């Protein structure tokens, strides 16, 4: 699994010119599922995501979690996080999870996040999405199997 986590002041995802998910202060999370990922993998990544202390406290230290700041969450599927560019100039996506499995994990992560985060918005799996954001910092973190 691979997550790109961006601390944002606001973010939105549109499909066919219509807003399907929009948040204010919180985290925009791009989610890619790999071939070997499972619900256990998703649980591990979600626990880390929700526990990250990447919001500033009163002293300007990154010491607060999403919950601590009443932040919102926008989750967007993105299989291209598994692009392999080692050979040639055209990326290969053979390491990405099979679409049905990846969609199930994406939907699972959304439903699990909704249990502890009051505002969880999301994109539409497999759709051509337009994502806009105001990155706060900028502050971007990548979680993958090499780090987690």
SSE arrangement:
Elements: E1 2-15, E2 18-23, E3 26-32, H1 39-51, E4 55-56, E5 62-64, E6 72-77, H2 99-113, E7 120-122, E8 129-143
Parallel strand pairs: 3-6, 6-7
Antiparallel strand pairs: 1-2, 1-3, 1-8, 4-5
Helix pairs in contact: 1-2
Features:
alpha/beta; single chain; 6-stranded mixed β-sheet; 2 helices; 19% helix; two-stranded antiparallel ribbon; 148 residues
**SS strand fraction:** 35-45%
Helix content: 10-25%
Largest sheet: 6 strands, mixed
Number of strands: 8
The rounded distance between the terminal residues' Cα atoms is 10 Å
Would you identify the regions where 5 or more consecutive residues have pLDDT less than 50? none
Radius of gyration, CA atoms, in whole angstroms = 15 Å
What's the mean pLDDT score?
A: 95
| Element-by-element helix/strand order | EEEHEEEHEE
- Structural class, from secondary structure content? alpha/beta
Number of helices: 2
From the spread of the alpha carbons, the general shape counts as globular
Characterise the protein shown here.
The protein is α/β, with parallel strands linked by helices and 148 residues long. It is 19% helix and 38% strand. It has 2 helices and 8 strands. The strands form 2 sheets. Strands 1, 2, 3, 6, 7 and 8 form a 6-stranded mixed sheet that branches. The chain has a two-stranded antiparallel sheet with strand order 4-5. Helix 1 (39-51) crosses helix 2. The radius of gyration is 15 Å and the shape is globular. The N and C termini lie close together (10 Å). The model has no long low-confidence stretch (mean pLDDT 95).
